[in-house]
Amino acid sequence: MKDLACTSDSYVHEQSPSNQTSIAMMQEPQEMVEETVTVEEDPGTPTSHVSIVTSEDGTTRRTETKVTKMVKTVTTRTVRQVPLGPDGLPSMDGSSPMGSYTDSIDRRYMKNGERYITPQASSTLTRSYNSYNDSYPDSHEGQYRPYISHDGYGDLPDNYGSLSRGVNYRPRYAYVPGNSYRPDDGSFTLPSRRDNYGPVAQPQVPVGSNVDLNRSQPERFQPEPYGLEDDNRSLGVDDEGYELDPDYSTVNRRTSAGVSERGRPHKGRGYDDPIETEMVEERIPYLHGGYAAPLAQPERGSMASIDRLGKRSPSIDSIRKDPRWRDPDLPEVIAMLSHPIDPVKSNAAAYLQHLCYENDKIKKDVRHLKGIPILVGLLDHPKPEVHRKACGALRNISYGKDNENKVAIKNCDGIPALIRLLRKTNDMEVRELITGTLWNLSSYEPLKMVIINHGLQTLTNEVIIPHSGWESEPNEDSKPRDAEWTTVFKNTSGCLRNVSSDGAEARRRLRECDGLVDALLHALQSAVGKKDTDNKSVENCVCIMRNLSYHVHKEVPGADKYQELDASQTTSTGGSQKKKKDDAGCFGGKKAKEEWFNQGKKNGDLDRNFDTLDLPKRSETAKGFELLYQPDVVRLYLSILTESQNFNTLEAAAGALQNLSAGNWTWSTYIRATVRKERGLPVLVELLQSDSDKVVRAVSIALRNLSMDRRNKDLIGSYAMGELVRNLPSRQQRSAKNLEEDTVVAVLNTIHEIITDSSENARSLIQTQGIQKLVAISKSSQSPRETKAASHVLQMIWSYKELRNALQKDGWNKSHFQSVSTTPKGSKGTAGRSAYDDSTLPLVDKSQDNEKAGSRDMIPMDELGPDGYSTIDHRDKERKYKTSDNTGDASEKEPLKNDTNRKNINRSNRASVNLVDARDIKPQPVDSWV
Amino acid sequence: MSYVPGQPVTAVVQRIEIHKLRQGDNLILGFSIGGGIDQDPTQNPFSEDKTDKGIYVTRVTEGGPAEVAGLQIGDKIMQVNGWDMTMVTHDQARKRLTKRNEEVVRLLVTRQSLQKAVQQSMLS
Fold first, then answer.
1. What is the CATH number of the domain that holds B29?
2. Which chain B residues contact residue A921 at CB under 8 A?
3. CB spacing of A930 vs B97 below 8 angstroms
């Protein structure tokens, strides 16, 4: 989550500026920020893979669970091989190791740098078998020795405790058969080992499992009980290995535990005979050999070799005592991903997923060892087991703070590969893994557009639409379907939520994505209908809607035709909109509508009695992005605001209303009136009492935008002033709720907006004892932003000469209203303004400002200007709100610019400067469909 | 991936064969191109070298013929059916791709991930 926060900050910057700018109107940016945050959380969800695996308590366990499965598989193999076993002994044990060994052999080849050739692998197996039957000796050694050097020890000695252990374990097996191979052991050994070591060995085991041989007798070994045990053990082991003993010590433990102590609990590792330790080291080479042997028949091969060498004695003894299993080291696991035998691949991938769980170091190592491209390559593997496991590993790898891992997945074209797989598979689990991975990836900004480019329509068609219950051509007989809050839907909506915050171009793409807006709205309506508005999917959907509603009045095709008079006068506006105009041509029938609206607008603008305003009747039902700003959505958002207990959802819904009521186009006029007619103002005012800081903030800003409607302003002034003032800190304490600075500033700005051009509202502010708090803030607040915002309000109040008498009666004098503010003005004032101008705000925006001109003029631009400006650059949260006044305007525009430039991944550049650039860029690059 | 006029170009390329899809009267490839020697190369978001005036893939229709064939956003098109695409105008490139009498186009494309993959394999 924290990581995400960082991301969110950057987002915030982009958007936040806009928030501030529009002051009242646009605050979407903030909302955007939140979104980002959410994303991070989601990544956490991905972790849940584990959970998927098992239903047990700890996630980790779950992961392990998977491992267990692998172990089981191995066992199966053994069975098969058993028949093969020359000894006639319970070949079971021996055989299983072999399977695993085979795998290891392959890996080693890989390590050597040689290309892995499938034929070889098979040949290897054969040999091993042969050797097994015939004689352990030479053939095995020859093959295995070379590999020995490769072993994890050489490569990754200390880091991977598990590896060391693993070595010991495996060898054991191998040796056991040779030296003191007991028929009994064979049968017992497997189970016991599993119990103790199973987890450790798992990686290899899986490999072994590949062999389909299991068919013959898989059932025996498969017994789930083993699996469970293994899991637990494995859990313990793994933890220990990675956390505690990277070194040989681990090995020792295991060794001891291994052979002789099967019965023992893991933890018995305490085995610390010095001798043993030494032995272990010596063994290692052998072990490796043994390890390699597993491929063919580790046990025998190793033993044979040992015998020959004569080194046996020490090593053998130790070996016998030690568990033979060892975990493959990371390079081996990664090499196994390319093993010709599919089960080996899938087991290796599953093991990787397990290893990566909550272990950033392993993730990084996998990346450095170039494991990620291999995993991505496996996504196209035809076998479900393989691409499923690869996907699971990628999900874990993609989760976390380390964005490098995400980039690595993207750099090897992992995103298109995931999308391809999503289109191909019907396996729910795989789809969950894919979308979970994409959700993780989407938390990193530079990847957002990549996801949009490769997968937006697919995600919409494959997941969002079907799970939302929306049907583009509803069958009249069947009743409308409800949304299904599946994990896949949650993941996908989370992913889209993240990518929807990537600036204007991203918003445009999402808005124009066929069926997306329709499906999201349908899902939300379904949620409201079922009173199920607290879940994460709903939160994601509302956040997407809020983001897509941001700047809708500027970015939607043909939006300029709906601009209200003020705006239209300053036509020189945005270039970004112009592009879209052309597109508008595609939307038939618009012209008539537009004209209709234009007439309506005039009435609307001038007519303060909006209650009488009739909403336009549409000749055709709205669809696609048009749905975003139809007055119908107001009721939906208000229902959510009434029903939901989820703060994020509440904030997003309030933010959506905030965004929709911002701007000066016809639709926002309707939205503002509709909120009033749907009795939404009381709902919003009540939420000012929320315990959640951000909800208060979003609601406060929404009220500010809504008060652009004169009737709303009167109502809000009468009924909301008390709640607003209550949210301000009093002299002694910051406030009952201890709201953040941003929120306090937002509330102050809202109050400012409400009392602008309304002496009645200013009077009610006085009556709610607001002056006392305002003066306290302006004089003694630690926050310069709060101080400024409060002093602006005070200045506004003082500007109403008719109120001065009342104020003076209460003991206030001019100094309370102007002294503080004046000082800052003098110095900063000019600078602020200049900065404002420099930002090259679009004329249109200015016009908007002009609407509020009364208030603005009153307010010293200077103070606000400088901060706001700086804020934008910083991107910090602070700036979001700081700018809210003047700067805010600038910010709004910025997003537009971003559209043009949007390719610039660097958000930092997005500041006002970007805006300028964007404009300059106007000559649009030609882009031709072929 | 920068190119010096007059000098041979070395790049790791992938062959992509796209079978056009008939849509009404049109044969479509399902992707869009940007760039060309008559375009402003600084606006190309996909090029590493901002003076590169090559033809780049700017969008790929999901599920369309180009995507099926493996074309990706950001790919630089080096050749179309053997014709050089590194020094052509935008319109020339468009026409070369949309020949009505050709139902199949064979592209040589290069992309950063290809280059990197090769580099890595050479390093290791």
1. 2.30.42.10
2. 43
3. yes
